[in-house]
Write a structure and sequence with these properties.
By secondary structure, this protein is α+β, with helices and mostly antiparallel strands. It is 41% helix and 17% strand. It has 2 domains: 1-144, Orthogonal Bundle (Arc Repressor Mutant, subunit A); 148-228, Ferrous iron transport protein A (FeoA) (SH3 type barrels, Roll), CATH 2.30.30. Helix 1 (9-25) packs across helix 2 and helix 4 (69-92) crosses helix 5. 33% of the residues are buried.
Length: 229
């Protein structure tokens, strides 16, 4: 994808983070951006102004930041590189599942369009990253599957883990320690004030609401008799 203006790695990180926050909440607030990027809120303003000058974002004071059509196109290109980099790290280099996201953040900026195309071919055209998120095509198409946050699932509803929407290492380590990965059967059996009790592949464990909110699941359809039980 050819961009009219070369962006720094920092600017690309902003675009990618805005996209993720926008997908979750409809808009990216500057305080959330600062938290996600581990920077002080005051330093966000200059970069946002830079991105706005290039037509990549629209900033409404006190409301937040949204990507323009041009910005979203760039975001999908960055995500494509990032998620293919994650697959390279886990599938070929045997990097731990919990470490792949942060390592891919550094690697994605070095992937040219040509190298990305070759990498996708070498990986045999994967549809999802190791955390279950869809890999955009070279044309910017995204195959989103229906799913729900674990925090919104009813008790004893049989589900399959579909994707993990946050790549922070500390959260991925928690999930990995409990065997929570895409494709694993899971159900909510109890809600407490500060945590959710789960069955994960037949084993009981608990997750805080904060960590549970990044686990998205697909509900397994059951027959009417099972639903009445």
């Amino acid at each position: 994808m050819a961009m009219e203006t070369e962006l720094s790695h920092e600017a690309e990180e902003y675009i990618e983070t805005i996209y993720r926050l926008q997908k979750r909440r409809g808009v990216a607030k500057t305080t959330e951006l600062a938290e996600e990027l581990h920077i002080v809120p005051g330093s966000v303003t200059n970069t946002i102004e830079h991105l706005e000058k290039h037509g990549l974002v629209k900033h409404e004071p006190y409301r937040g930041v949204k990507l323009t059509a041009k910005g979203e196109k760039l975001a999908l290109d960055i995500l494509r590189r990032h998620r293919l980099a994650e697959r390279l790290l886990t599938d070929i280099l045997n990097v731990k599942w919990s470490d792949a996201h942060e390592s891919a953040c550094k690697l994605e900026h070095a992937l040219t369009k040509e190298v990305t195309t070759l990498l996708e071919k070498r990986l045999e055209y994967p549809r999802f990253c190791p955390h279950g998120n869809p890999i955009p095509t070279e044309h910017g198409e995204v195959e989103e599957e229906e799913g729900y946050p674990l925090t919104e699932i009813g008790l004893n509803e049989a589900c399959i883990v579909a994707k993990i929407t946050d790549g922070k290492r500390e959260k991925l380590l928690i999930l990995a320690s409990k065997g929570i990965k895409p494709g694993v059967p899971i159900s909510v059996v109890k809600r407490r004030r500060s945590s959710i009790v789960l069955y994960v592949a037949g084993k009981k464990c608990a997750l805080s609401y904060d960590v549970a909110s990044i686990v998205w699941v697909k509900v397994i359809e059951r027959d009417e008799h099972a639903r009445r039980k």
